[in-house]
Design goal:
The chain is built from nine helices and five strands, in the order E-H-E-H-H-H-E-H-E-H-H-H-E-H. The chain is an alpha/beta fold.
Length: 179
């Protein structure tokens, strides 16, 4: 079983990497989904919950919940590779590297204008339709330490052209790591 972490700013293209990993038989564990589930329980926005969880339980809480979910899958006998989508801090990277041998981080990069336009089209609940809201979210994500994760990634995939070219880069990366 291989465990890979995916990081990147909102709208960079992390989900495309995940979709292609699913096609190869991987299971996706989304840290964002874990936060969204908790936000529903709390009656908060995802941004509030992401911030409040870290204030209440420390910088490691989201990774702890994610690792717990992965270990449960392993206990259930799942042998598929696992992709952890949405790693946001170097604290989380440390936890994953301590918990799983050969854990690697791949980050997806795209410029802010491209990402904003992608988010406007995607229209997920936490995607802002105005640029100021987009920037607020970006700065919140960067405040968690996302910039460190991207800077220290094992691999960075640039997603600033057409989808076919990006998918080729993803396939090359998967071949490179024998995924």
């Amino acid at each position: 079983m291989r465990i890979i972490g995916i990081s990147g700013m909102p709208g960079s293209g992390k989900s495309i990497v995940s979709e292609m990993a699913i096609e190869k038989g991987a299971i996706i564990v989304s840290m964002g989904d874990i936060i969204r589930e908790e936000a529903k329980k709390r009656g908060e926005t995802t941004g509030e919950t992401a911030t409040n969880l870290r204030k209440e339980y420390g910088e490691y809480i989201v990774s702890e919940l994610t690792i717990k979910k992965i270990k449960k899958l392993q206990e259930e006998g799942i042998k598929n590779s696992i992709v952890v989508e949405g790693i946001r801090s170097h604290h989380e990277v440390e936890m994953f590297k301590e918990s799983f041998e050969d854990f690697i981080i791949v980050s997806v990069f795209a410029n802010s204008n491209l990402r904003f336009n992608r988010l406007k089209e995607r229209m997920r609940e936490d995607d802002s339709q105005d640029y100021d809201g987009f920037l607020v979210r970006d700065f919140r994500e960067l405040g968690f330490g996302l910039g460190y994760v991207i800077a220290l990634s094992d691999k960075i995939l640039i997603n600033e052209s057409d989808i076919e070219s990006f998918k080729e880069k993803i396939n090359e990366f998967f071949e490179e790591i024998n995924f």
